[in-house]
Amino acid sequence: MSDKVMEGGCACGNVRYRVAGDPIFVNNCHCTLCQQQTGSTSVVNMFYETDRLTHLSGETSRHVVKAGRGGDHAIIRCAECGTALWSHYSRLGEHGVGIRVGTLDAPASVRPDAVIFAADRMPWVALPDDIPVFETTYDASELLPPERFARLKALAAKARPA
Q1: Do 68 and 32 touch, CB atoms closer than 8 A?
Q2: pTM (predicted TM-score)
Q3: Which secondary-structure segment (H or E) carries 16?
Q4: What is the pLDDT of residues 95-126, one digit of tens each?
Q5: Taking the mean position of all CA atoms in its chain, how far away is CA 57?
Q6: Which of 14, 23, 86, 140 could form a disulfide with 99 if both were Cys (CB 3.0 to 4.6 A apart)?
């Protein structure tokens, strides 16, 4: 595991967290569900094994909505100000976590691996030339380096019912 450590928190400062190591993958998602859930044009999530996330302070609340594939998507928010901090998606279960990059103390230090669901983006949103863009999603085995893909496979295996 990398020595990299990042910290972040909510808008009011009540909740603080730390995440260790490099993310498995980082997506900038433009799907209509992400637009609706964030009230914005897209969301940037970095995905980790949940045990790499340390909740340092503050009370959170859990809000469950449906994900694009129909499973539960649990959004963890600051109980005081409502900032969405991270999520658990049914595909990865509670073993995986998608952390909102915008809640990091240094969000510009994280660069997406891919722009996904570009077909749903607002027509005036410009996309970067140097990040792969996908109309919907991508095959992680083709995009991610082998060690990061292995981490993703291990997480997915933990989330599958026995």
Answers
A1: no
A2: 0.92
A3: strand 16-20
A4: 999 999 999 999 999 999 999 999 999 999 99
A5: 20
A6: 86
Contact criterion met (CB below 8 Å) for 30 and 115? yes
Q: How many domains, in total, are found in the chain? A: 1
Closest C-alpha to 116, from 55, 67, 45, 60 = 45
* CATH code, 18: 3.90.1590.10
Two tokens at 4?
A: 């990299």
- pLDDT tens digits, residue range 42-98? 999 999 999 999 999 999 999 998 776 777 889 999 999 999 999 998 888 889 999
Say which residue the tokens 């469950």 belong to.
64
Note down the domain range covering 61. 5-159
- The angle subtended at Cα 117 by Cα 115 and Cα 122, nearest 5°, is 95
